[in-house]
Write a structure and sequence with these properties.
Elements (H helix, E strand, L loop, with lengths): L2 H14 L1 H12 L2 H4 L2 H17 L3 H27 L5 H31 L4 H31 L7 H6 L1 H72 L4 H18 L5 E2 H19 L3 E9 L4 E2 L3 H12 L8 E9 L3 E9 L3 H5 L2 H14 L5 E6 L3 E9 L2
Parallel strand pairs: 2-4
Antiparallel strand pairs: 1-3, 4-5, 5-7, 6-7
Amino acid sequence: MGIKGCRKIVFACIQQNPLFGYLILHFIIKTAAFKSDPGRQSFLVISLHAVRKTSDGKLKKEIIHQTGFWIALFVFGIFRNYGELEQPDFREIFYYDVCHWIFQIFGANWIYFVLIRQFFEAKKYFLFTVYFVGGIYLLGVLNRLFIVYVAEPLFADYPRDSVPEILTDIKYLLFYYILPIISGTFVFISMRFMLRYRDEKQHALQLQKEKSELELKALKAQLNPHFLFNTLNNIYSLSITGSGAVSQSISRLSDILDYLLYQGQKERVSIAEELKIVKDYIALEMLRYDERLNIEMLEKTEFSGLIPPLLYLSFVENAFKHGAEKTSGHVTIRISVKTDEKHAVFTVDNPIFDQHQRTSPGIGLENIRKQLDLYYPNRYSLEIKHTDNRFSIKLMTPLT
């Protein structure tokens, strides 16, 4: 395999699993052919740099997961083999299990991170099958060779099988070497898929949360200028008439702006805080309309709760815009806030003098509805009623 092919496989392994990529690089470094080739040495330097760059945190997490899994599997295998034998030799069982364990670790990582991730999931089924059959046979042979020529001389004096015998004894390789590797791989892959499913689910939830937060910010960015535009129009009207209430209106507006800048950026505010700014806004409007404006406000907030900022204020502002602003006669606007142990109910009722409001709720109410969908998906009730000369809104939201 050339440098280009090695680079492709190693970088794929690094991306999927920094630990396995590091092990492959370590093996390549020990290969004499790579030591004697300056071009390949350069490739190794770049690859090792990539491992260091991508392994911060991810490599540590991978080591913790794999260490815990393989130790648990090893201990389980020790106890299982020890219990199956009538006269078990713990030392011999330990050595054999360590030898199988080493090749299970390498085989499981190779099958999952190379064959499954790079070939099976890419729908290269033929190559996957060829590499799997050839690779699992090679691992079985290497495992057998390692035990016969390296491990067994350390603790036993058994006759050694020749290399041709090891290569051709397929049945023995299958039941005593290949199947243990496949069984360990199966358990490992099952664990990886569960972890992968959990991570993907958490990632999807995080993306949904970020999407919702961006949408909320976009809606607030539309709502706040919409509200300010109407309020500044009110103050402009007062200034044209030479009203002495301009300075007092600006003071009220300052309080409202303070609320928009600081409380309006929060995810939730208390109902009491929202009602306070609603009253400031009503006081600002009273300066403009004087005696021809009648506000009937009912508060029964025995239970405290949280709501999105500017929620109630936006409804009240909408009532003034399409009610009092559209007539020179007397206007009555009714506002009610009630809470119980589970819900908060907010109602606004205003007269209709604007034909447009009879057929369209306007940008303000549309934005509020979108905001409610994000804050309370399937958990709120918004009723909008039109009569001959009245327009009413009833909103019920959960307190928590």
